[in-house]
Amino acid sequence: MKDIAFINLLVISAISLIAPLALGLMPKIRVPAVVVEIVVGIVLGPTGFGWVKIDLPVQVLSLLGFAFLLFLAGLEIDLHRLRGRTLQLAVLGYAISFVIGLAAGYGFNLVGWVHSPLLVGVALAATSSGLVVSLLSDSGHTGDDIGQTIIAAVAVADFGAVLLLSLAFPTAGGSASGRAVLLAAFGLLVAVTGVVVWLASRSRELGNVLTRLQDTAAEVRVRGAMLLLVGFAALAEKFGLEDILGAFLAGALIGVVDRDGSNHPQFRTKLDAIGNGFLIPVFFISSGLRLDLRDLVTSPAALLRVVLFLAALLVVRGLPALLYWPTFGRRGTTAIALLQATSLPVIVSATQIGVQVGLITPLNAGALTCAGVLSVLLFPAAGVRLLRARQDPGAEGEDATSREVASNGSIPGVGVPAAGGVGETEGEFPPGM
Q: Which domains does the chain have, with CATH numbers?
């Protein structure tokens, strides 16, 4: 045990506490905490002072943090609303994004920046579903029409990205056809597990036991969720897939089975506390520590790559938002475009895989990750402000479609009832995000 030390984890834990507190004390600074965490990681890592390193405890907790981030993103998906026209537009939007992203990847390949257009296409077509869903939840939009549309779009994008990373760029190797077979077998096993969990949840006797133990030291519901998370991640690895795919599916499965939380209202709050209170900040801070931007900050030509990657993110994920123009009008469509273009975790994962297998240089991986950081810094705040303006009945130039939704309670062209009673948002990031 002499080789294991906790001093680096201590510094990271302190950063995770100080970042939201500092933002809470300075409410005029509208920056998500994850950006501050990554930036501080960069400053304290090899790019800056070199004071903090990624040792074994930090590495393990960072991996768990990324898995938990995707687990919570899967948990937020309402699969019962993710169907019909909403699902069709989300899938079509992602397909368009992937094609545009692949074209951008070939463009970057022609100038010698990347060796794999597919890897860049997957990274550019992804979205930070966990961050976007958290933002929508804190601003009161997860239950309304446009909120569910955005959640559907980002969920499909993240699932598609994780799936493609598992199939096309596995760190374990193997042929594409073999991985497809393994993916099908893994999907079947997930489905069987889901049926077993659902049948168990219908048992009155087991339900009484869960209710009696859920708020005691046993915390059986939380333990069960952790078992599914770790179990699916381990199974995904065993099948030669990325463990993050298993984590995402574990969250989605719990979201399907656990629709009615009336007899355990604190369950998801406890999961949020584990993830956002400890594991996820470790992932974001260590992501900053992994970035060695010394070559990037000393080269104006390299900085240009950050700008171009950021523009590519906005185009790749923003253009498909035009599909929603007939439903949500100018403001709603622009808000969807900006929130869809907010991307970081999958970019971090894709670039780490790319560097590991030699498909992208550390310099370009850093530039693409910096573009992701800037997307988190710039796009969500503007998107939320547009959602607020669209929600305000007295806003100047309000979209006609928004007025129609407000008057008849339905969304034309989507067929999803509009949720009412949504509170106003100030367009700010909550300090803890």
A: 75-280+310-393 (1.20.1530.20)
